[in-house]
Inverse folding.
């Protein structure tokens, strides 16, 4: 319930600040000069372009699955496969051979 109330308050605050800033305008060049573009719409377009840019990477990771980047094989045991052990007292590594 608290999260819902926080989200509603954030949306209302965003709408109020947007309403106050609709009069601010600028010129934007994107392969053509657009005159008197509201700053709010320029920021909204940049946000949407960012979302569209990230979407292929999100779908790529979900299609191919997650990989274990540590290089270790996943096994059922919880024993470490790396024989290097770090001593907690002096921070030096000890070889268990």
């Amino acid at each position: 319930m608290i999260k819902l109330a926080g989200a509603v308050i954030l949306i209302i605050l965003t709408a109020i600040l947007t309403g106050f800033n609709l009069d601010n305008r600028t010129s934007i060049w994107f392969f053509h000069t657009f005159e008197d573009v509201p700053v709010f719409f320029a920021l909204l377009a940049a946000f949407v372009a960012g979302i569209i840019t990230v979407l292929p990477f999100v779908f790529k990771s979900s299609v191919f699955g997650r990989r274990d980047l540590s290089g270790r094989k996943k096994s059922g045991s919880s024993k470490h496969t790396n024989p290097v052990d770090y001593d907690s007292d002096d921070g030096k590594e000890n070889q268990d051979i």
